Amino acid sequence: MSRVARSSVLSEKAARQSTDARFLADGGELGAMMRALDWSDSPLGPPNHRSQALKTTVGMLLAAQAQIVLFWGPDFVALYNDAYAPGIGANHPRALGRPAIENWGELWDDLEPLLAGVRRTRTTFAAKDRPFYVERHGYGETSYWDVSYSAIPDDDGSVGGVLCIVSETTERVLGETQLRASEARYRELNGTLEQRVAERTAERHLLATIVETTDGQIQALDLDYRWLAINASCADAYQRIYGKRPRVGDSLHEFLADRPEHLAAAIAIWSRALGGEAFTTIEEFGDPRFDRRVYEMRFEALRAPDGTRIGAFLTGTDVTDRLEEQARLAQAEEALRQAQKMEAMGQLTGGVAHDFNNLLTPIVGLLDRFQRRGIGSEREHRLIAGAAQAAERAKTLVQRLLAFARRQPLQAVPVDIGRLVAEMGDLISSTTGPQIQVTVDAPEGLPEAMADPNQVEMAILNLSVNARDAMPDGGKLRISAKARTVERAHTSGLTPGTYVCIAVADTGIGMDEDTLAHAVEPFFSTKGVGQGTGLGLSMVHGLASQLGGALTIRSAVGAGTTVELWLPVSQVTAGAIDSVPQPKLQPLPAGTALLVDDEPLVRMSTAEMLSELGYRVVEATSAEDALQRVREGLRPNLLVTDHLMPGMSGTDLGRALRSQYPELQILVVSGYANNEGIAPDLSRLTKPFRSDELAASLANLTKVAQ
Question: How is the chain split into domains, by residue range?
């Protein structure tokens, strides 16, 4: 052969190889890598030896933005695109053109049956959050993927390979596990697929097959807004939200001609994609007469082999349920944060109230003594009376703190709420003043609620005062009570059942969302300095919770406020609450009183009161100190002990001494207002207290002993 002829043959061969490699032209970095790769060691051989189906599939996956890997032939030789490469870590680029077992060896026992099954049965395998063990970064880890494995036919109709469209979900799955299986993030797109509209019938058929076997919602429009392709999943979505299905060749303008607003919204989005823009968006579509759904959509330009833009396509995912679950999760997280904050504040206020009661006890006792003895001039009497009044106000403040902390003593009995509310009408009218029009609606025949009547009265009065302050220029205040039934989960957390709902509604200035969010927090107040404690609503909130009810607030700026106190219905008949006889004080016997308290000022004040009541007082600073005095021969007639002290508690001390001396009278004094930890057979007295309150408690001890 002449040199000229040989040159001509080589030129024709080079031209043929260049032509055969055109399917790699727009393949990004992987396309360039495939063009430069020495394929002599690959089972696939050089590009010019490959089937048309393989070339078409590789050209499609290289141009796509989704993570796609093709396992071709019986050796499952790997070919993948730029989007897929980062997902295999250090296995790239050595995995390119090599049998899968060489670079997916650690998961081959898991992966090979899946690929072989799709190849054998031609059935698509799809899974969500599928776990795979991988060693892509030099160490073992479990990763999670959304996968869709589809069989790809070769030119002769046999299965040539398996096309895997994947999306890694590891981060989302681990996040959901940490949030105890709550779904917190959007699902990654199942995969984007660029549909190439080819001139040859074989290519169009191959792409149509891929589109139909993918479980994502895929559709393509030409530049005239006519459908070039749409898969069954996407057509089903149109059927759901519009009651009809588009077909290839239909016009989007004609399809939504009877819904101009929907057509305008669709055209606005598609026009961007048809103009060449690639983007992801989340939009809501659908006729309310059928259904409204939210979709996350990825738009890409669709180009002919020569690069000419011929349309656009999208891959969509219905994320409606995900968004709703995310909203519910956010609401639950906010409720949890609020509950944790309120619990922490409750513990804090309970501790503060305990210490405050210890401080108030000697103050109240000393002022009480001054008043009983009439010490000082008339002016000093007024000053002492004022100080005593201030101490009582401080005592009330502590009670409100304890109410918020749910630690105040409640004497829950069946209460006729209708009568209680009706009888408070005159008191509330006098409290709110003439500028406020008060209406009371309390029908007869309401079921009795299980509550503490004194605390409920205080709650209604607090709510009424708040309403009055919210109407500085006058307005209307309506107080009502009615029976309400909760059949399903209530917004406030009430369990299903029957309740009596007390509503206090005003026409005042209302609250904005931020104020409403903090309304029940202790010490939160919108009033000026010195005009409120910020404990009114928090006290009512604590009372409702302690009684097994709830407090709800509805308010808007300029539209007034409605506060509802929900109380559980009593299962027993209401008794004559006001007719409980008060015990008459009995003369106190003389004897020795063993007084135990770790607070010196409290001990000093209480000792003075006991001395005035005729007792010889022996003081001890702790339970251990008291037991030592008894071991040394002390035989007290009366034990007055603090409950919570370092070391042994007052309750344990009382039990220990009573086991030795059954006739010993015991009175437990506590700075807390609840009965927690105090034996039910031991009498108790809450700090702070006056001499007459101490005497009454001791008289009751004597009466019980008799």
Answer: 17-170, 214-407, 412-568, 592-705
